[in-house]
Amino acid sequence: MAQLSEGEILRRIVAEEINVKDGIPTFVDRTSGQFRLREGLYLDFKEQLRLETTASVAEIARDILAFSNTEGGLLLIGVADNGKVIGHEPVDTGKLRASLGACPRIADFS
């Protein structure tokens, strides 16, 4: 994938032409643990999911809706707003689906 630009790799991940597990590591500087890409049209970072709070679930729903109103995108959990990879607790996708309601495209790539 080195011959593709980072923007093109991201676009292809969103279009499901490149597997998330293959594409996302290309964006991380292994020395600093920092994402080289910034949040934008196709990419949003969340440090953690707090499904027990209404405000957090509402924020996640807004992020998903924003992606659905454009060309799609990736919501990466365990990444700080500054792009630092910090990791996260396992996500219960069943609880996430229940919290958000009917949402056909929630996937677990952890």
Give a quick summary of the entry.
With 110 residues, this protein is an alpha+beta fold. Helix content is 33%, strand content 11%.
Written account of the structure:
The chain has about 110 residues and is an alpha+beta fold. The chain has one domain (about 5-100). It has four helices and four strands; from the N terminus they run ααβββαβα. The strands form two sheets. It has a two-stranded antiparallel sheet with strand order 1-2. The longest helix is centred in the middle third of the chain and has 15 residues, at about 55-70. The radius of gyration is 14 Å and the shape is globular. The relative contact order is 0.17.
Overall mean pLDDT score?
83
Major sheet size, sense and barrel closure: 2 strands, antiparallel
Number of strands: 4
Number of domains: 1
Beta-strand content: 5-15%
What string, H for helix and E for strand, traces the elements in order? HHEEEHEH
What is the rounded Rg?
Answer: 14 Å
**How far do the termini sit from each other?**
21 Å
Strand order of the largest sheet: 1-2
Give the % helix.
25-40%
Number of helices: 4
Overall geometry comes to globular
Tell me which oligomeric state these chains represent: single chain
Low-confidence stretches: none
- Indicate the structural class: alpha+beta
Task: Provide keyphrases for this structure.
alpha+beta; 11% strand; globular; two-stranded antiparallel sheet; two-stranded parallel sheet; 110 residues
